[in-house]
């Protein structure tokens, strides 16, 4: 586990990174790309030589008026967020860190988003451009530092969530937004089915909801927006005050629900918000329903195949987040797998970029 | 440099005998509507970029998936290129036919399959018009956010192909941000689902890749879009400025104040006059620039934001700030803007619309460059601008009946796009590259980057039969383009190696 090292200077390490890649490609050496090493549990273990991005760091351009920030991959996520907060801005998708050393590159490669995701969008929705090191070590620029850009294929979004398997993310340009003027969090006691109905109904109205999680008979809500609408909605919905810290604890999986002592595998079900899971032995009220129901967490001993079939029937997929899972991600359909393999073969024919991290054949 | 397909620069394409291809397709798909006589093909010879016209070899109008799959299968077997077309409103020639190719027209796939008010999604066929989705969602208080100016006519399939935008992108995003799932047929006839009705899907984000891919990776056959609750209210402010630069700064000041408008549009004097003459929207014809700033959301927040935005614009030097009194006046303010293109069209026999994007801070500089270029070429340019997200639409006025004027307009347009790239921007914000901007791609991208694009294409279409010649130029084309340009000394750094 890497330790925080705030003394690292901002530096463009493109030359060394490029050279490492050229060499690895020439030798056919698989590389295990590491930023802050906080998300190794998310995906399959990679057998390869470690390639650290942490030297390649620093914010290269930030003009708050443009609502765009460009930042090198090895920059600590916390440092980026602090720089944005200083200007009253934020990453709207509130990415989880899972550790103090989390980097911006890791955030993009993992593609994970926090509680605001259903309302604000995911990491990929805010990526405007990337500099991607290819297997020859060249730094390729896709997208850019503008809000709208449809020139060429959208490779900058394609690499989000690809876990470093299509190239090395060197730098990323992100759209940022002003922090909301007002915020309020509250808790409402209600059973799951009632919470579902309420969320469906509220979803059709322009309410300032930006987070909704149900667990054990309590619906937790966050309201953000102008002071008028937040105050009005807070009054209308009633309930009890909730500490805003709840959302960070949820995002970072520090709630008691995620209890690390529990030895059963931790599953993430990504489902249509209103979908019901139809599976014997699965009690939906025992799950944590984040994203207004679109992201559900559970600890379960059920076998992967059974769980995944149920998730697929419900229109979604299931990811196992317990380290060492043989197949953390839902297997792709044969046709989809074919195009994944072809894409990987075109961009990384020698398999140097995080081979096997997503699926054994990628 | 001509943009028509040039085998020498764009790659060889097989040329099959028309009668044989027609007979083959008729045999393979007996129910498929195939047009082959010149008078039937004529209406399909161009899309919204009507300066370019090519008669396709055949036009196919399938009405079910089997027909599309059969068509793709036969075209692949015969080596016949396929250009897919939606409503044909695209402005970059993305659906420009090939004379040796089949034009696959998806307009008969025009059904809204499902509107789910609880999930806030709509499942539609690609030929459904953009506005029709919002109309179908309206009874539930929902709508589909991206609103390109052509939304009455353009199809959602075309929107996906071009990753279409509109005037509300800054707050609500482009097509890619509002599409959840796409069903696609590959050239090999396989059905694939990209994305999901959940908020993510396992594997690579191929859904993001397919948005804006201009029909070059597959044929989109069904789309699930996200619907949003209609904002409770929307109010619009119109600010007049005696200086374009001041208006440009006001845009930055609004954003810096933490306000994210639903729409933030700028028009320069020529565009203001054209629109006012056409629509009588009450625009100040003496102003050098106006800003239309729309704030939407919950009543209380919108009032709060209107006050702040007004103060910011006044502080930035606005000579007048008016808030639309009511819904009718708000619609009128927008009508002027939304009809700016046809309005400019009334001032000139022809106009050519550009689509470059720039960082907002570069606005004054790029506008100055455009004014200089306009002078140099002797052609008027009206500027309409999605100011909030840096997307410019300079409209070049010309007369195609005058010898050489179209070429002059194109060259001026190319130079404007190069100025955008030079300012750190892009040659296209929402209209796409298509065939129109194929040469300017050589300015925006380096050979390694273009090669990477070609590799992505090869993963889906190794034979290169889907919409060949669009979107990504060959290195051969760029070499020729670069050579021509340096020769004329028009690039900012002619000493740099270009390809």
TrEMBL record, chain A:
Gene Ontology molecular-function annotations: catalytic activity; FAD binding
Protein name, as recorded: Glycolate dehydrogenase, FAD-binding subunit GlcE
Claim: Zinc is one of the keywords in the record: no
Segments forming domain FAD-binding PCMH-type: 1-179
Signal peptide as annotated in the record: none
Keyword annotations: FAD, Flavoprotein
Gene (UniProt): glcE
Automatic annotation (TrEMBL), chain B:
FAD-binding PCMH-type domain: residues covered: 52-230
Gene Ontology molecular function: any one: oxidoreductase activity
Cofactor: FAD
Keywords of the record: FAD, Flavoprotein, Oxidoreductase
Pfam families membership: FAD-oxidase_C, FAD_binding_4
Superkingdom of the source species: Bacteria
Residue ranges of the TM segments: none
PANTHER family: GLYCOLATE OXIDASE SUBUNIT GLCD (PTHR42934)
Protein known as: Glycolate dehydrogenase, subunit GlcD
Originating organism: Halomonas beimenensis
